[in-house]
């Protein structure tokens, strides 16, 4: 049973910068969970703005950005970043890992925060309580951020990320098929994210 002492929630969240993503993978530039969460927040906020303004969605882009900032809370609270081949090895193992993540999130909120913050933070941090549309947009941004990082590694000649790029692109396409705002972001903003500094600076 996990136990997080009262007042420790923010301290645990700030430790996301201590967790290096992509364990067991060889990478040229390391990425922390803190960096990843920032990337997901930015991407999900842009997607949500597109959804709200172009596709008349009723969700709040600010709520989605905040949910993205906390979407890896369990990793800092005790789970760490587990390799995907292990986490998704079989349904039984995946279910057990999800159960542990949920217990960590609940402990961080209900033990690590004062009682008057519980009702506000639980629907943001505890993934099983996050609004389904918010969670879906954050997941799309999560895969886009991971795809962006994988592409950056692959483009520097790191073949370690070849399969990751293939898998993540398939996931991104599925998100695009479900959410037109994700497709709009992917077609209009994502390409520039893969450009070099010189390409970004050049006015065509």
Highlighted features:
204 residues, Hypothetical protein af1432, globular
Structure description:
The longest helix is centred in the last third of the chain and has 24 residues, at about 130-155. The protein is globular. It has a single domain, classed as Hypothetical protein af1432. It has helices at about 10-15, 35-55, 60-70, 75-80, 85, 90-110, 120-125, 130-155, 160-180, 180-190, 190-195, 195-200. It has about 200 residues and is mainly alpha-helical. Helix 2 runs antiparallel to helix 3, helix 2 crosses helix 10 and helix 3 (about 60-70) crosses helix 8. It starts with 8 loop residues before the first helix and ends with a helix.
Describe the structure concisely.
The protein is mostly helical and 204 residues long. The protein is built from twelve helices and no strands. The chain has one domain (9-195): Orthogonal Bundle (Hypothetical protein af1432).
């Amino acid at each position: 049973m996990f136990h997080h002492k009262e007042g420790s929630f923010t301290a645990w969240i700030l430790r996301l910068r201590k967790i290096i993503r992509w364990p067991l993978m060889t990478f040229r530039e390391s990425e922390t969970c803190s960096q990843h969460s920032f990337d997901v927040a930015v991407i999900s906020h842009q997607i949500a703005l597109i959804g709200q303004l172009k596709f008349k969605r009723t969700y709040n882009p600010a709520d989605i950005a905040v949910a993205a900032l906390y979407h890896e809370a369990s990793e800092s609270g005790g789970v760490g970043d587990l390799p995907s081949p292990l986490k998704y090895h079989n349904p039984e193992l995946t279910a057990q890992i999800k159960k542990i993540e949920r217990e960590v999130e609940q402990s961080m909120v209900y033990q690590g925060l004062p009682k008057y913050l519980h009702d506000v933070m639980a629907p943001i941090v505890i993934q099983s309580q996050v609004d389904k549309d918010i969670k879906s947009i954050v997941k799309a941004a999560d895969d886009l951020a991971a795809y962006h990082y994988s592409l950056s590694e692959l483009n520097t000649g790191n073949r370690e990320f070849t399969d990751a790029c293939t898998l993540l692109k398939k996931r991104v396409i599925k998100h695009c098929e479900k959410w037109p705002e994700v497709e709009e972001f992917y077609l209009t903003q994502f390409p520039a994210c893969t450009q070099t500094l010189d390409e970004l600076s050049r006015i065509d």
